[in-house]
Amino acid sequence: MAYGSTTQGKTHPRENPDEVKILTLDIEGFENDPDWVRKGEIVRQDLDIPAEYKVTEYRAQVYENSVTGEKVTGKFSEGVNAPFQFGKKYQATGSDPMRA
Q: Rounded to two decimals, what is the model's pTM?
């Protein structure tokens, strides 16, 4: 289910939040004063997106000929070109998940 909805550039609260915290007034005797009547609530929502990630390490074997010095190396998976890089999901969005 999507978090919130957007119409005309404004994001609206989600109808069924995952958690609700009731913030009560902390004033003694306030609730027993008949001059004060509860008139409702102001609702605000805070969306947290979990920063979950998975790091896959690829290790290519290297062999060297002890006579000629020639080296051969195993091939990395397609698209794995640097010592550290973001996976295809993050490359497509252009976002940096480590700066969340």
A: 0.44
